[in-house]
Amino acid sequence: MTKSLKTDIGLAILRIFPSIFMLTHGWGKFNNLISGNFEFADPIGIGAAPSLFLAVVGEFVCPILIIIGLKTRWAAIPAAITMFVAAFIHHGADPFADKEKAFLFLVVFIVIILLGPGRFSADRK
Questions:
Q1: pTM of the model
Q2: Consecutive sets of 10 residues in the chain, 125 residues long: mean pLDDT of each?
Q3: How far is CA 103 from CA 37, 61, 90, 121, in A?
Q4: Domain boundaries defined on the chain
């Protein structure tokens, strides 16, 4: 197996699996949004409904695009911003264990922004 193929497989794994895991966090928020339940935290002071909408974009819509590999770098930006807000604002005063997942997702999405989706993506077709 060539180094390039290994890199592309690694990028696909890095792109797909964390995004699937992120969908589990966004699914409930998506269901709340479409059912009209806008009760949500307001970590950046724009209101509960806009905050919920942005969280759904970052935790549900963008991970789907990242899994497919469609506009991957662009889709990773809102996902990274959402995790930045979760880690540094929403969980800012919490112990590290409570914000660790947000940090891990943030790092993954930053790497995706920097390296791109790899060969096994819709972006490369």
A1: 0.94
A2: 92 98 97 96 96 98 98 98 97 95 98 96 88
A3: 27, 20, 12, 25
A4: 17-120
